Amino acid sequence: MEGAKPIKRDSKIVVAVDESEESMFALSWCLKTLFAEDTNSTLILLYVKPQSPVHSTYDAAGYMFSSDVVATMEKYGNELVHSVMERAEAVYNNFDSHIKIQRIVGRGEAKDVICNTVEKLKADTLVMGSHGYGFFKRALLGSVSDYCAKHVKCPVVIVKHPARN
Amino acid sequence: MEGAKPIKRDSKIVVAVDESEESMFALSWCLKTLFAEDTNSTLILLYVKPQSPVHSTYDAAGYMFSSDVVATMEKYGNELVHSVMERAEAVYNNFDSHIKIQRIVGRGEAKDVICNTVEKLKADTLVMGSHGYGFFKRALLGSVSDYCAKHVKCPVVIVKHPARN
Question: What's this model's pTM, rounded to 2 decimal places?
């Protein structure tokens, strides 16, 4: 069953990044730990934007957003993508390596988008922070990492920020 | 925060093994993925025996075990440790490496023993299967891996057996 297969050096490793320090720490851990020097593996940075308010102009309480608010939220969302990806690339650039990198921006419910992306890419490993995606949502619904650890087929690494320890 | 620190080559990596194929697969994944060729890291095989019936001769329904049954269960438990550790070492021996190995047999509630051992050793990573430790217990109480992912401070890798996919 568990024979001495050669180490797979062309893996696809997905790191789910968000606004949290923890997800940047997870990325850093991943680069230090999972990417050997002679690797051919690809690092896939995945960021999930929340569902666009353009497609759901009513919020949970039934209020309708004006088009101005919708446009502002959309702009804010785009700036957030840019800012998270920039931070992630700063972490990546700290590692003097020739790691192949791919960026994916998904949209929708984080847990679903992460699981679907991992399956679609046939990723070999998923790395993510244990928290992120909002305290209240997590407290109410369970964390995104819990869900992904249960639902994706590949190994899942859950990394915690040391400051929380 | 996430500087380009050199890869830590003297990590302590705990793999929680049990009777399941999945935990052997997790061990195999760990050896292939987390142990670089020039590593100084230590692989710590951790097996947790259930609480000895000698110390609790009443089962959940209030039946008392006779001393014969207790002795038989104790013997069975010891044979299980031996069998699991032997299987784990067969997996380990498949990898032609000079990885330092340490064996720990704990006793008690698996989730508590795993978390306590990881903390006590100041382990760098915990690797485990997503299931194991009994279907009913898992269904009733949630899986051991869920609990450990929430409670240990270091990164936790949850590995699934491909046959379940």
Answer: 0.81
